[in-house]
Amino acid sequence: MTNPATLLMADQGPLIDVHAHFHTPWTNRSDWARYNASRLRAGDAMGVDVHVASVLGSWGYHSPTYFASPEDQTQANRWMLEFAASQGDRVRAWVAVNPNFTAHAEAEITAGMAQGAIGIKLAAGRRADDPLLDAIAEQAAAHGVPILQHIWQDRRRDWPNQDASNGLDLARLAARHPTVTFLLAHLGGGGDWAHTLPAVADFPNIVMDLSGSGIDRGMIDEALRVVGASRLLWAADLTLCTGLTKLRALPYTGASASERAAMRYGNAVRIFPPGTFDRVVARHTGMAGTPRMGAA
Amino acid sequence: MTIGETGTPGGTTAGPIDGTAWIGGYPYRELPHPDPEVLVRVLAREGFGGAWVGHLPGAFHRDPAPSNRHLYEAVAPFRAVLHPTPIVRPDWPHWERTLQEAVDRGAPAIRIYPGLWGLGPRHPALTELAEGCARAGVVVHVTMRFEDLRQRHPIDGGSDVLAATVRGLVRREGASPRPVVLVAGAGREVIEEIHWGLTPEEQGRAFYDFHWVWGPPEDHFAHLVRTLGPERLALSSWWPLRLTQQSRALIDLLPAAAAETAAETAVEMPERAPPTFADFADGRRMVARAAAVAQSLT
To answer: Are A154 and B217 in contact (CB < 8 Å)?
Structure first.
């Protein structure tokens, strides 16, 4: 139980969770501190070196999770950045914004980047192909950071409490901003992942994370076949258990050792600002930088 | 190469018996190599000593008889490891004969899919089946769902099985006996709705496959281990639908101390030693429980 010796995995080396979340005191759950501690404890047991994390407003307490008010989001970002700063290399921050409030979003991004954020988190306040997101994408380009976009795999209808995007929506945004890297969130996070893969296959500036509670057999295999290892990033999102399962499954996908290293951390090193993970990688390998792997 | 395809033999039949596996295809998406010989290799790789195996296509058929024939034939060459768990549809003519054939062929459990059959809580046919399985010493395996609601095919209108349906199978009513039940595919909320809606005697006949329960940081699994006990929670692979490593991942990520998962408002619970893999339920333990139930009725 949480003994690293029990967590047998074929692969060792750096491990970066590019899709993590924490909770703050300003939330609707009394166990927010336990939740955060559990994420760090389980991450340690699994060998997670870095949690790249965001906080989505008040998680529904004061304003809806996916339509966070500017005040809630500012408070959440401030907490997230301070928490990341307190954790050293262990936690890095996405700055989350609600694109319906353009000026506020731009100010949050500017402030967040100044305080160490390494990317921009977009949830479901607006469809990904909405023109309002262009300003956010331009900010990402200016700062040289990726955008993590919440995605509903094959949205066939509207669902409550979010303007969810699917792969096709994100592809339209990515086509308008070819210099920006978009990280498509949680391939295993619900919906039909099989729809997402062809939807984004022709857009090389879209990469995707493997997080989510979904552990369909065949999902990773098909993702490898359609987009390749250089566009897949391991992550956990809300369920570290399924993250561990996917880590243990990777050796049986046929992915080579270098491809698995790319999914564990190499692709993250590539899409985030240069030097972001140098110290973490150096701890494992004695050298900084991106591991050798297939073409992006 | 596909996950699960590269498993190499070498496991031991002394390992736990996986309670939830199938062979065969799934109507709504491609499943890589859902063949019994592949399952045997995967079980060995993952340390299972065997598996209760259903025939997946039959879940979506009206008549279960052809599906059951396929199942018995397919697992016959691997009978030491793969234990057939046929479908018994209690609203189908002569279901009693299907159950008797399962008993005669040594099936440890039978499968039911009440959500796909339109059989709701306390349906008389389910009640009759429950009594029959109790007397036969056969476990009733209930699949609550195959996929997350959000990804289902538009024509997949079968609903998740309600907790009330399971309670109806397990609850004693007068002199009518009730069987041992394995609930597969449920999350914390449904498991708790079943467990805490049963008497202590009834609780002892309900087991929960925990493959779909969330681990850290929500720690639903740790909560259930703490409140229900590992003996109620059953190991499984969910092959070929889901990645087989999940049961072990959940156990490996359990915290060392219960306090690490207790919400601030939770009542105090007695401290228990962290469970090991061997503390969880598996096919052998459920079979033993079902046999004890049948024995008590003779």
So the answer is: no
Q: Which residues pair with A17 in a beta bridge?
A: A51
For B106, the token pair is 């040594």
Query: What span, in angstroms and rounded, lies between the C-alpha atoms of B23 and B31?
Result: 10
Q: Which of A258-272, B114-128, B209-223, B258-272 shows the lowest mean pLDDT across its residues?
A: B258-272
Residues of B in contact with A192 (CB under 8 A): 151
pLDDT of B271 = 66
Report the residue of chain B nearest A252, measured CA to CA: B3
What is the spatial order of strands in the sheet that B109-112 belongs to?
B109-112, B139-143, B181-184, B206-209, B233-234
Average pLDDT of chain B? 92
User: Model's pTM, two decimal places?
Assistant: 0.94
Collect all residues of chain A within an 8 Å Cβ-Cβ radius of residue B3.
217-218, 220-221, 249, 252-253
> Which is higher by pLDDT, B177 or B10?
B177
Q: Collect all residues with Cβ–Cβ distance below 8 Å to A177 and sequence separation of at least 6.
A: A134, A137, A138, A140, A141, A205
The 10s digit of each residue's pLDDT in B165-205 is 999 999 998 888 999 999 999 999 999 999 999 999 999 99
For residues A15 and A48, the answer to whether their CB atoms sit within 8 Å is yes
Give the mean pLDDT of A177-187.
98
Interface pTM (ipTM) of the complex? 0.94
Cβ(B174)–Cβ(B226) below 8 Å: no
The contacts found for B143-146 with CB under 8 angstroms, 24 or more apart, are B143/B20, B143/B59, B143/B111, B143/B112, B143/B113, B143/B184, B143/B185, B144/B115, B144/B183, B144/B184, B144/B185, B144/B186, B144/B190, B145/B115, B145/B185, B146/B26, B146/B59, B146/B185, B146/B241
Provide mean pLDDT across the span B91-112.
98
Chosen for mutation from B253, B254, B265, B271 (greatest number of chain A CBs closer than 10 Å) is B253
Q: Is B77 on the interface with A (CB under 8 A)?
A: no
